[in-house]
Amino acid sequence: MNATSSAATPSSAPPRQASRWQDVRARAIDATFDADRRRVGERVALVFRWLFLIVLGALNHLNPNTTTEAKVVVDVVLFGWAVMNVTVQVVLVRGYRPGKQFSLTTMVLDIFFAAGLVYLSDGFSSPFFLALFLAVITNAVRFGATASFVSALVVSFLYLFIGGSFTPSNFSINADATIGQMFLFLVVALATGYMTRELERERRAAVERAAQADSLRELSTNLVSDTDIKDVFDVLVDHAVQMTSAQHGRVVVSSQDGFSVVAAANRDGKEMMPEDEVLDEHQMSQAAGTGEAVFSSDRTAVVVPIASGDGATVLVLLSQVEGAFTNQDLFAVNALTGSSAVPVANALRYHRSRQEATTDGLTGLANAREFRRRLDGAFARPDRRDVPLSVLLVDYDFFKSVNDQLGHQHGDLVLAMGARIVRSTVRGQDVVARYGGDELAVIASDANGAAAQRLAYRIVDAVHAAGVNTIPGRHLTFSIGVASYPEDGFTAAELIMAADQALYLAKREGKDRACTFPQLVTELELAEGDLVAMLSEAGPQVIVAVAHAVDHRGPVTQGHSSRLVAIAEAIGRRTGVTLSSLEGLRAAGYLHDVGHMTLPGGEGFEVPGHCEEGERIVGGANFPPVVVASVRHHHDRWDASGDGVPMIARILAVTERYEALTAGRACDRLSALDALARVREGAGTEFDPEAVQALGRAVEDGSLELHLPDLAWPAAAAPAADALAAS
Fold it and tell me: Could you tell me the sign of the dihedral formed by the alpha carbons of 345, 349, 354, 359, in that order?
């Protein structure tokens, strides 16, 4: 097991990157450990050298049988050895970190000086053979037990043969003494090597424990800072694998629904589970039930429970292909799970509360708030203008009769079964939500109008095939409205309104069918004299479709009403318009050009008399008076009418000019700031200054551009625009 520290690993690093960082740190720790051992070995060698030099110098001068010349020779060797020792001590004191070459050099010099003393003295009879033990002892500290044993063999060879003491006659006279003296060097090498290895093992264990403690501290920090349960589990399993000898790790949640793998990590950084690895549900059940770790029979796998809460237990599964888990591994993973128990339990509770806040309790689908958040997120994507998107609104037909005749309990059962049918029919990437009491909503990502229509037909067919009984003699059916971005709506709110109006058409046509927003627009385009009657009957349920029908009169007008409503709403919010007035503003924005539909020559951008005709149509459809007045006066100058014109109409006047300038309708197309400057020229005369100021704030803070779509005219539109500009 590598001694690793996680302090330098970024908390956000993926498992593969984290594993690489840990390998680098492990190699760095091993290199540091070897350097420390060599430095300690050199310090030990310094002490032993001074001890040997003092003892050998005393023996040299206290021996009465040694001649003066022999003493001088030995003193010269001892002096050279002392000079070497002083040099080593000086460089170590100055902070030098000895490498392998340095330690090898001092080892060779020790053997050289010791062998020289033996050679220049009496061999076996010389007391200077003690100097050879210096190399044997210090090599164990410098390089380990193996190097010490090898050096003992070399020293034995030098001692016997270079000293000149080994001869056949000596061996035959005292073989036991000769072998015993050689064995003495080997015993010293083995003893010192064993002690050094034990000290090294203890020190490495201390380093590993410190690394594990550091890893646990980082784990606790990451778990406390993370509230996303997936991130918590990813951090947990990655640390579990790195702190033990495991090759694979899994985090499994055990609940009433069974076992589910929620996170995985491998030592090589891959997150895929080996195909031949099967989870042992008996072991997992035993660990979840007892709260104790469970080993497999061959100890190649272990299951450790972490925390329980809300009817679920979190388990850590570790496995390895070769080898077996030790008690030290169990100690490490127990320490890890103990440190993570509280954060994991908190993450489970947070996840459950978050699910409850975003999930409908009856159907298990996303709730209306989560649906809005997901749809707004889709429109906030930087590539939203390049990726199609569709919304389907699914309504349960005749659902009120289910509750009235059979009760709400049976109605809830029908709701849940219908939700299951829709969820199983749509694609995996689609979002299904309970949008209202008996209404579901689907976000079909990366699906254009044709694909969304096919999906709606599949849902209708699926509910027919299911044959869900609602009331006696009737089966469950759906009415579905379909709308797609960007054809049917430029904003999230407009897309929902378009889908809702397509749903209105499906229910009006007899239910049990799917209708698209373009179908409703086409019907309105063909209404002609019946337009007032349709508006009077449907009111707000068709105003977006009416706006699209008006804008379809020519390529130059495509998207005009949708853009105008987006701009007008941004201005209205900045002028303090109330929520009810915002509804009126949106209605007036969608209907402001409805007069073009009944006037001859309706393909022009602004046909004279369309304001008066629009007032007649909207007034006849029983819309609120403020909406009728705003349609009538949305082109009036502010200095001519002043406060006598509704604020909604004044906002529409500013919006109309700004939209035309930025879209290049009957004029050169201007940038947002240039168009704003042009509108500001008319503030206080043509336009209401308050509305112009609100437009300026919306443009300058950049918020308008988040919702205002680009205009993409078809190729045929360019000549029409040029003709309008020329006229």
Answer: positive
